[in-house]
Amino acid sequence: MNKFKSPYLQPYKGTSTRHTCPACGTKNSFTYYLNGDTNEPIHLTVGRCERESKCGYHYTPKQYFIDNPDKVRKDDRTPPIHINRPIEPLKPIGTIPFSYVEKSASHQSDFVRFLFKIFDHDKRESPTIVHLCAMYAIGATRAKEVVFWQIDIEGKVRTGKVMKYNPITGHRIKHESGSINWVHNLLKKNGTLPCDFNLVQCFFGEHLLKMNPTNPVAIVESEKSAIIGAGVMPDLVWLAAGNVNGLSIDKCKVLKGRTVILFPDLKAFDKWSEKAKEIKTIVGCKISVSDLLEQVATEEERENGFDIADYLIRDMKEPAQIRQRFSNEIESLINQNEAMLYLIETFDLEAV
Predict the structure, then answer these.
(1) Which CATH code of 3.40.1360, 1.10.10, 2.40.50, 2.40.10 fits the domain covering 208-315?
(2) 0.70 surpassed by pTM
(3) Average pLDDT for 253-280
């Protein structure tokens, strides 16, 4: 008899021991933890990705039953579990000394030059850009590449993403070896970090969650979109998943109890909508998915990979130009913070 029936347990068909990772989407890379009574997966998210150096996803049975106590009978809190391969001791999460973040701090990247085209362009100095660079610890290399540091909720540096941007268009420029480099890889090559450095990525901007414990959270794909979103609507905590497959359960554990809005890029709405259901169930947060881009994008914009940053840049307007009549309560909120007006108008929000 199976003592641990779960409404989320789906039939396990076939004999393959490798499956598609729910975090990075790589096929034949994921190993399930199995229920000892039935030899079926405990849940299709409970397991380990073999691409540990790149993905790092690992959701254990212990953590699953802690997160979902209703899945375990009160008279038996220790379910019989075994897996279909030996478990190796977990490596500690690799971190990088914060001194590297401090040394890289600079406004001299081509990405920041692009930001000057958007914010405070009528002023000699830009308090908005200074604030954004400090808030997200934006760095730069000597080649004017931007460094987007991944700093976790405890303030520990996981890695940094190094990219080159066109200062005029704000689009990424690909290197001969690709469009992205990583600080941990560079430090491994020069011997500063060990070759077995255990990279486990976190959200870009994750450290802001502890600094803003009650603010709603907005999650986008790219670091560029998070920074521009934070400049336009600072009352939200803007995080970046890094890519369409970066919205993993492991990353989202820091969102427990938060109010979250997902802003997927075009063509990713369905994928992130499904992921949102999973996050709500496993993590325990109030989550919604914006379909704004799906509604307003033209065919040309779809072909060009339009994202929320492109929309915000295109439709940025002065508050006086879009002010409409609201209730006294809403007017009071707008008078306290004009970012509320832009939020209401841009996303067609209504008072309930």
Answers:
(1) 3.40.1360
(2) no
(3) 93
